[in-house]
Amino acid sequence: MTALAGLTPKAHGASGRIRPDYPPQVQQAMVRGRRLEWWSLFWLGTVIAVVGLVTGQSQAMRSAWIEDCLSLLPPTFFLLATWFEGRAPTRRFPFGFDRAASLAFFAAATVLLAFGAILFYEAVATLIRREHPVIGSIRLLGQEVWFGWLMIGALTYSIVPPVVLGHLKQRPAKDLNDKVLVTDSEMNKADWQTGVAGILGILGIAWGLWWADAAAAGLISLSILWDGVGAFRRATAELVDGAPRDLHQDRIDDEAQRLMDRAQRMGVSLCLRETGRIITGIVESDDPQDLARLTEGLSWRVRGLSWRPRGSAP
Asked: What is the pLDDT of residues 218-268, one digit of tens each?
């Protein structure tokens, strides 16, 4: 197998970073995904610093800053999960660490859901309290400058990195079937949406619409909540050994559905579950050769299926 990024697959496996038994294209996608997540940590760190300097009394600005801070967690979860995933089985963990990706997905989905709930609560509370944010001026280079322009500039900057990074993560997420990367991409979408909402809220304050700031944050929170609920449902199903789910929706994964349809045509019993990015399970039939026939021509994700005689005790 060819070397990747200056490291051989053997070195990757020894360091616990990339599983050497993955196909070359999957290893390349893993390298690209990790590189994008490191870039995410860097660029989002700059966004947090810039937005934090000009937060002021704006509800949307505070929400944007908190959201930017939370958006550091999914890249961190992905990097940790892929590092553990490639480690060899041990005496204490004889089945390996494939489920590190499942745990990371659950953590990332929880962060997305929690952020949407926090943002919605803060927006509604601000509207109920009828808080009127005030944006003053600052002396800059000898001139009085409305502080809102600095806020808008910071929010405009905060939109650019998430848009670019979120788009770039979609391809490796699909190649790896990685739900953490998908959730991170959704967090990036929440990043730039929050930035747009913040700009609209600040302009609303300038026009005398005190409620525009919190209303903009509240509308965006509903979109984030929707994504968070969907991700949380898929993550929970994976942890409790539900049938493999689609990357974006709470429905059966296409590869798993093809396998189930083939099993039905062959007349064999099949139970599937998802372990990280791997589809595994149990095949029950009268002929042990049914296992090879069932999995013939399927993707790299289908592995670790076991056969047992029909009607035998689990």
From this structure: 877 887 888 888 889 888 988 888 888 888 888 888 888 889 998 888 888
Report pTM: 0.80
Q: Tell me the three-class secondary structure of the chain, residue by residue.
A: CCCECCECHHHHHHHCCCCCCCCHHHHHHHHHHHHHHHHHHHHHHHHHHHHHHCCCCCHHHHHHHHHHHHCCHHHHHHHHHHHHHCCCCCCCCCCCCCCHHHHHHHHHHHHHHHHHHHHHHHHHHHHHHCCCCCCCEEEECCEEEEHHHHHHHHHHHHHHHHHHHHHHCHHHHHHHCCHHHHHHHHHHHHHHHHHHHHHHHHHHHHCCCCCHHHHHHHHHHHHHHHHHHHHHHHHHHHHCCCCCECCCCCCECHHHHHHHHHHHHHCCEEEEEEECCEEEEEEEECCCCHHHHHHCCCCCCECCCEEEECCCCC
* Cβ atoms 25, 70 nearer than 8 A: no
Q: Which residues pair with 311 in a beta bridge?
A: none
The number of CA neighbours under 13 Å toward the Cβ of 128 is 6
